[in-house]
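Inputs:
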Amino acid sequence: DVDLVESGGGLVHPGGSLRLSCAASGFSFSTYSMNWVRQAPGKGLEWISYISDSSATIYYAESVKGRFTVSRDNAKNSLFLQMKSLRDEDTAVYYCARNGSETPGGMDVWGHGTTVTVSS
Amino acid sequence: IQMTQSPSSVSASVGDRVTITCRASQGVGSWLAWYQQKPGKAPKLLIYGASSLQSGVPSRFSGNGSGTDFTLTINNLQPDDFATYYCQQSNSFPRIVFGPGTKVNI
């Protein structure tokens, strides 16, 4: 089965750092571009980062630019999000999501999410 | 590009037809997707390309529109359809923007 499994979330103090991981299985990970999307408690979805299949192209939302770094290891079928200088407003469930090859513009596979809580 | 959705919530009954509207602040062509999200769960892709039904999604879901105005229609609402629905534009891909969501209540 096609699957994405996030890990690495937890409680962190403001100003701290955290590294999220997303393990992919059941598909050719190296041929898909990927995203990180987050959802603050009780709020809507916010796209925060994109990485192309080869890592050649990377984009960030303004809200995280300069603080978050996305990367991937295609040999290990893994996606990462390094988060630093965390703020209260970064508290959210973080999802990794695949850009579908047959669903242009749509993210067709999502992980279950990992929760990040930024609090003192 | 900013996305708006209306209504923000709607109350409906099993068997009803529900229509949700999504509007973009500027034209996005047909680069519009719809997702369903249930509490505590990840979003699920329903529609891409404004009107293409994702594999495995029931045919009671349909999408329409282009440019700035889009609709998601759910015919014969089923108990499993009570959820929050988000539109998402990808005309500015890969900088994706989601709408604020519409909650479909019983």
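Chain A has a mean pLDDT of 97. Flag for discussion at group meeting.
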